[in-house]
Batch of 4 targets.
Target 1
Amino acid sequence: MNENVSFYRDTWAEINLDAIEYNVKSMVEHLGGEGTVIAVVKANAYGHGDYEVACAALEAGADMLAVAFVDEAISLREKGMKVPILVLGASRPEDVQVSIDYDITLTAISLEWVKKAEQFAKEGVLQFHIKLDTGMGRLGITEKEELDELIQFAADSSSLSVRGIFTHFAAADELESDYTDCQFAAFKKLLGGISNKEWLIHCANSAAGLRFKDRIFNTVRLGIAMYGLSPSKEMNKELPYSLQEALSLHTKIVHVKKLPKGGKVSYGATYTAQEDEWIGTLPVGYADGWLRQLKESEVIAGGKRVQIIGRICMDQCMIRLPEKMPEGTKVTLIGRQAEEYIPIDEIADRLETINYEIPCILSARVPRMFLRNKSIMEVRNPIIQSHSASKG
C-alpha cells in the first residue's frame, strides 16, 4: 500500500473518478447542450464520497448539485463547494435562515410550508424549488390552485424567490409501464400558465434522462447513472450509451490455514470441510456493509472466483481457496481482477435488492480511495479524520 495512504486495515473501496466524469459527460452529450445537469450527491454520493464526486461531476459539465438534507448541503459548503446546491427533501421551516446563510436552495412542499418558511427568513432571501406530486405520493403539491397561490405568495414576498419547479417519476425505469406518461401529463397540466423562463424545470431522473429526451424540459437530475449503474435491469437493453461503474471493493487475505476434513468454520459451525481445505480469512464483515446474507457468495482471489464459507462475522469472513495462497493476496469483492468481474448488480441480486443500495450500505469505516488515471489522488478515512478533529 502507498505510504501516503492514511488507513491501517486491508479493506478499502476504490472510486474511479474518471468513470464519474465519463458518465456525466455522456449525459451532457446525450442532451446535446439542451439541458442543465444536476449531479445528485446525496447520501455521501450514494456511498462514493460526496465532495470528490461533486468535483469530478462539475468538471465534466454538471451545473449544480443536489442532496437530500440541509446537513449534507452544509457539509459540502464547509468543504469549499461554491456552486448552487438544491436540497431535494423536506426541510424544517425553522432551518430556513441557516439555509439562507449557507446559500442553499430548499424545496417547497406546500403553500403552508412556504408561509412558515417566510416567518423564519429574517435576513436575506430564501431560494427554493417547488415540488409537485404527480403520482409518487411522497412530497409535493397536487392541486393547481395551491400552486398558483404559492407562486403569488412568493412573488409578493421580499424574502422568497422561486428558482425552479419539479416532480419525480415513480416508474421511469420500467419499460412496460405507462405510469410515467400519466405523471408527465399531470406535470404539464400543473405547469399550465407558468412561463418563467428563468426557472429550472425538471422531472427527469437518470432513467427518464436516458430514455425520454422529450421529457427533460431544461434539466436532468443525474443520480444512479452518474455512478455507472443502470436504473433497472430492464434498461440495460436500451441504454443510449454505456455506463462505467465507478466503485470497486477490495481486501487482502490476512491469514491462511489448512482445515482438516470435518473441520468447522465460523459462528454456528454451519460449514464443514468435506476434505482437507485451504481457508483464507478476510478483514471485512457485516459492519462494513458486507452483509451476512452474502454467505456462500463469491469473491475474486488470485484472479479466480472463490466462495465465502460459513457465516460472515461483524469484522471478518472466510473463503475456501483452490490452493494455498500467500497472506497479503488481494481479494476483490466488487469489481474486476484479471479476467473475472463481479459487478454491483451481482451483489444486489444475491441480496435480493436494487443496485442503489449496495454502495450506500458500505459503512464509513471502509476507507474510500479516489483514483484518476489509475493513480491515487486522495484517500478519505472518516474514522481517523474524526479522531483527529476531536483532538484538535
Target 2
Amino acid sequence: MELCHQISLVAGPIITALFIGTVSYPIMFMILACTFFVGTLFVLSLHSHSNTKDTTSESTTDSKARSYFKEIVGGIRFTYSIPILAIILTTSLFTNMMFSGPVNMIIPIHVNDLGWDGSAFSSLITSLGVGMIVGGMLTGLFKGFRGKFMLLPVILGCMGVGISSYYFIEELSFGLVSHFLIGMALSMTNIPFITYIQSTVPANMLGRVMSLLSLMSVGFGPVSYALCSFLLAKNIATPGHLLFFGGIIFASVSLSLFFFRSFRQMEQHPNWKKPAMEEELLPATLSS
C-alpha cells in the first residue's frame, strides 16, 4: 500500500507538469473531478465481509453497549498507558508538525522566491516520490530494519537536515537531491514504525491505535499550516528561516528518541521477537 501511494506521488506531478503546458486550469480541474469519481466507483465496489461465527454473543453485546466516544477514550488511554506507543505517537505529532507546514506549504513559496516555475516544483515533488519508492524498496530489502531500529532516529535526523538544507539551496539540482533523500528517509522510517505497531498491538485495539497515529500524522497538518501562515504574515520569519529551523527541530526531536529506555528496548517485545513463520507462509496462503 505504501509503494502504491508512493508511485502515485511520482506519476501525479509528472502528469500535472505535462498538463500545465497543454491544457487550461478549468480542464485540469475537470480531469481531477473525473479521477475522484472513478475512485468513488472503486470504493463503492468494496464490500465488508464479517464472519459472525467467530464473534461471540458476549463480545457482540459488549460492542453494542459501548459508545463510539468511549471507544475513542479507551483507545487513547490504552495507547498512552504503554510507554513505547506514547513515544511513537508523540514523536509523530512533533515531527509531522515540523514537516507538513515547512515542506508542503513553505517549499512552494521558497521555490517561487528563487524564481523557479511550476515545472520545477513538479520535478521536486517527483523527486520526493521517487525517493519514497526507493526507500520503500530498501526497507523491504532490509526486512523492515528488524533488529536495527536504533538506525531510525539517525535516518529521521538526516531527514531533518535535508529540510534545513533548503535554506542554502540555490540550484534546482541540489533541491532534487535533497527531496530524493527526504523521500527515502520518509519511507525508511514510516514503514518500520507502522509494522511494529501492527505486530505488537492487540487486534481489538489496533484500529483505534492506528486511528490515533493517523490523527497525529495527518490531523495536525492544518495546525502546522496555520502556524507557518501566522509567522509569514507577521513577518516573524522568512520561508528560508522556517525551513531551516523547522528542520533543526525535526532532527532534534528525532534524535531525542535515544534518551528513552522504552525506545532502546522496543524490539524486546515478545510479539516482535517471535520468528516470522507466518510471513514466510503468507504467499502460499494468499495463492490458496
Target 3
Amino acid sequence: METRDPASLPALTQDESIRYSRHLILPEVGPEGQRRLKAGRVLLVGAGGLGSPVAMYLAAAGVGTLGIVDFDVVDTTNLQRQVIHGTPDVGRPKLDSARDRIAGINPHVAVEGHPVRLTSANARQIVRGYDVVIDGTDNFPTRYLVNDACVLEGKPCVYGSILRWEGQASVFWGGRGPCYRCLFAEPPPPGEVPSCAEAGVLGVLPGIIGCVQALEAVKLLLGQGDSLIGRLLLFDALRLRFREMRLRRDPACPVCGDAPTIHELIDYERFCGYAPAEAVTENRMNDDVPEITPTELKERLDRGERLTIIDVREPFEWEIGNLEAHGARLIPLKQVPERMDEISPDEEIVLQCRSGARSAQALGFLRRHGYDRVLNLKGGILAWSDQVDPSIPKY
C-alpha cells in the first residue's frame, strides 16, 4: 500500500469535519488521518455476512471509496446475519441493496460495483485498483484466488472466516508477512468442511469478525497500530474466548515464498478439487452423478414404485422438515460407512440432503462399494419444497 503525500490528500468539507469530529480529536487520526481515510480505496469481496458490517463501518468511518464484488441476490435466509440488507430487499441484487444502505449511512462515500464472479481472468485487474482488500468469501476456490491476486498485486488482504459459533481473522500481506497459503498450503477435500448453509452460523458472529476486519482496514489506511499481520485471531462465541496464533511466512510457499512458482492466477476450482460446474453453485453436481428431480420422484412414488429414500442430513435438520411421510430414513452422511448394512444394494435408493451436495458425496461412496441402483435427489429438500410440497420448511 502506497504512502500518500499529505499534500496530495483530499480536503475535508465542513460537513465531513462535523461528521468525523470524534475521529479528528483522536491523536492517531486527526485531520490528516481522516483525509487518508477519505483517499482510501477498499475492495470488499462479497456483500454477505462479513461484508455487511465491514461495508457499513467503513462507510461510517469515512473511507472514500468502497468497491464491492457480488453477483448474488438477497434471499430471505440471508437476513439473519447479512444486516446491510432488509426484508424489502429480498430478490434484489445484493450490490444494489448494499449501495443504497451505504448511501444512507454516508453520502460522501463512493461505491464502485463489480456485479461479476471473481475469476482468474478478472481478479488481478479488479484488485489492482484498491489499497486494501477485504476477504468476505465463503468458499475455498475464491479464498485462494483472492489471496494469490493480492500477493501478485502487492495488496494487503484482510481475512475473515466464520462457521457455526467460531470465527477467524488475520491480515495476509505477501512481502511483509505470511499469506493465506502459508497457513493453509492445501485446501481440504471437497465436502470435508461444511458451508454455513449446511452447518449453520450464529447471526451475530459475522458482525464480530466483520468489525475486526473493518478495524484492521482502517488501521492499515491510517498506518497506525499493530495489525494482525503474522497473527491469526480465533474467536469462540459460545465460550466468549479470543485466542491468538503466531503465523510465519513459509519460505517454500508457491506464491509468496523465496522461489515462488505461481506467477499468474490458476484454475482454483480444480486446485480445490471441484469440477468447474460444482464451483458455480453447490446445487449443481457432476455430470456422472445420476439424479432424479423432485417431480420425477413424486410421480414414481405416486405410482407405487418401491424406492428407498435415505436422508443424509443431520438430526436437527431432519427435525426442521423431512420426507418421512414418503418412507425416508435418516442416516447422517458421516454414519453412512458404518451403517451400510441398513441399506440394501438390491433396492433402488434415492439419496437426499438439503441441496444435493452431501447426498452426492454419499452416492459416490456407495457406488464405490458396489451399489449400482442409486440416485441423487436433485436440489435436495429445498427443491422438493419448491417443486412438490411448499409446506416443507426451507432453511
Target 4
Amino acid sequence: MDKYKLELNKGSSKYLQIYNFIKQLIISNEIKEHEKLPPIRKLADYMGVNNATIVKVYELLENEGYVYKIVGSGTFASNMKLKKKKSVKREGLIHFDSGNPSADMFPIEDYKKAINMALERDGSTIFDYDEGKGSKELREEISKYLRERQINTDKENIQIISGAQQGIDIVCKGLINYSDVVFVEEPTYNGALEVFKSRGAKVISIPMLDDGIDIGILKLKLEKIKPKLMYVMPNFQNPTGISYSAYKKRKLIELSEEYDFYILEDDFISDFPFDSEDNRPLKSYDNNDRVIYIKSFSKILMPGLRIGIVEIPME
C-alpha cells in the first residue's frame, strides 16, 4: 500500500487529487498493467477519505480507460492508455459501446424553437432554482406519461434526478445501512454494485435465465436470507439484454410482499419494444407499493440533458 501514500491538499478536490495521483502511477508503470488496485474500503481507510470518494475516483479512471473492472474480482490497471482512441466515422457503422442514440435522430430545429419559446415566455426566470423535487409542471407531465404506461402515480411521488446513477445513490442513502443485504441479478450494472458496496451492503447475486431472474434460486435464498432491497432491470437488462416474462414480473411482486422487501427497478430503455413480448415496467404490476421506480430519459430525449426520475411509493 506504500505506493498509494498521498498527502492531500485541503485547497482542492480530494477525488481529483487521488484520480490524478493514481493515473500517474499507472502511466509511470508503478502500477503494472493488469495489477489489481486496492478494494474501495481499504484504499479509503488508507487515504483518510470516505468510500464514495474512491468510488468516484475508480469510475473516472474507468471512463478514461486507465482501469477496468471485473464483477466480483475488483478493479485492475488497463493498457488502454497506450491506445490512442480515434473517432471512427464510417458509413453504415453502428457503435454498440455507449448506447447513445444516433445524432441525426435529434430534432435540432424543434429544440431551438422550444428554447426560444421558453426564453420569450419566462425570461431569466428559467435559470432560477426549482423546488427540491424539481419543476411542478415537469413532474405533472411525467406523471401523465407514467399513467399512460399503467403506472398510477402523481407528481408528489416523483423526484427529478440527473440520471439512473443518481437515483440509485439517493435510494441507497435513504434505505441501505451497513450490513444490509441487497439482492442483484447476475450479471448486473457495475455502477449500481459500487453504490451498494460503498454503503457497506452485503450484495448477493441471483443468476439470470432466458426469461428473467431464476425464481427457483431466488426463493431458496429468500428462505434463508432477508434482503432490504432487490435491484433489477426487467426490460432489456444491462448487460444481457434479457427481458422478464410477464409471469416473472408478477412473481417478483408476489415474493416482495411475501418476504417483505423492496424492489428497485432501473428502467432505461423500455420505451423501445424491440422484439419483447412484454415491455411493461415492473412498476405497472405493483399494487402493493413494493417497487421503487427509476426511469432515465437519456435514450428517448437527449443524453446530454441528464434527466430522469425516481418514483417512490408513499407511506
